[in-house]
Amino acid sequence: MPNPTAPPPSSAALTTASAPAPSASAVRPLSCPTCSGPIDPDPRFTAWCPACEWNLVPPEEAAEDCAKSAKELARERAAAERTERLFEEVADGRTDTTRRDWLAASALALPVHAVTVVVAGAAGWLLVTGNTTVRCLGALLLAVAFLLRPRLGRVPTGAGVLSRSEAPALYGLADRVAAELGAPPVGVIRITEDFNAGMAVLGLRRTSVLTLGLPLWEALDDGQRLALLGHELAHRVNGDNRRGLWLGSAMRALAHWYELTRPADRSRGGYGVIALLSLIGDFLANALLYLVSQLPYRAYLLLDRLTARAGQQAEYRADGLGARVASTAAARGMLGALLLGPATATVTMRLRAEIQSRPRSGRRDAAPRPDVTELWPQLREHLAAIPPLERERLLRRSRRDGHTVDASHPPTHLRLALLTRRATLPAAVTCAPNEAAAIAAELAPHRTRIARTLLAG
Q1: What is the reported pTM?
Q2: How far is Cα 245 from Cα 312, in angstroms, rounded to an integer?
Q3: Distance of CA 375 to CAs 216, 347, 362, 450, Å?
């Protein structure tokens, strides 16, 4: 499925990244080699110049951008321009969810759903009116209709899923946020090991599922966690039709059709005529499957393109609703924390290496192996130690690279910029210390489980 595109690097970033200056990891100058401005030589982080952005991106990473073709750069530049135009329209209040492209997407979803209805109807007619042979064909068509059915998603179960009896404090906080937004209460809360969060409506009963990545949750303070809950629960009331039954199930169906029909690797060993015939057969089958798979793939790309603007507009609106819940400052802090994913990975890899390097021996002189639960205090300590200059570098890097959570979200720096343009809001919902402590106790078993998963490599 399509990947998010990033805007091209600015000319200043390209100039400074390609300057013949030493790597930040090798020599840490006290002044910028390009503009002679002062540099903070903090050994824990990348040395860079805020004035001219020298070494904003290390040379080895900037070389990857320089290796891109002119066509790739043009495509990225066009995508960045579209994103910037939408940002200006949203900031000026000039967009509307009932756009022509959204209506076109709804019309495109009609034949997607109609395919399943027609195949199922044909199967039923053959099963009722046909002879034995025709009924066999009808049964085959019924199986095909089952494979082509709209994908409503499956409500998760098992490890990581919290029931209301297991986490009354967390559900209670989510319910208060939902009530403030006028959204229905969340149905299921799931805890994962991802540095992310999400909201989905799944299954025949259309159960709302709130997914909270524990590494992201641990990287936030109490106000930022409220902003995260506000943003995710706002997807129930922000007019995001991509998550609705009509468009959402159509997009999931197209993705599933593509997975069913895309060519697979069928390479086989052997020699002789039989092996040659098998190779020719695999080639022809893959060629046919490729042609068939292009129909749902291209339809998905078109549907995604038609709904991208409305989807990003909905994300901006969710940010605004999250700010209303937890305050503008908390919402900005939450969005800024999204840039710290690599920092959490650094802490995880460092502790994993420490655990693996220490012996399991029972000797008295053997150093004790670190407990996996040390991951979370070390993570919070590391993030708290990130200085403002490094956070500024990450923000400028995100502006240059067009950092997004995923393809459906606007760039993080534009989301921050829009909150800055809007009126500053106080918090409408707060989390008391005893409530935060109760939530931490409810998540304690999942801290151990997820820390063990992350540190196992």
Answers
A1: 0.80
A2: 18
A3: 13, 7, 23, 10
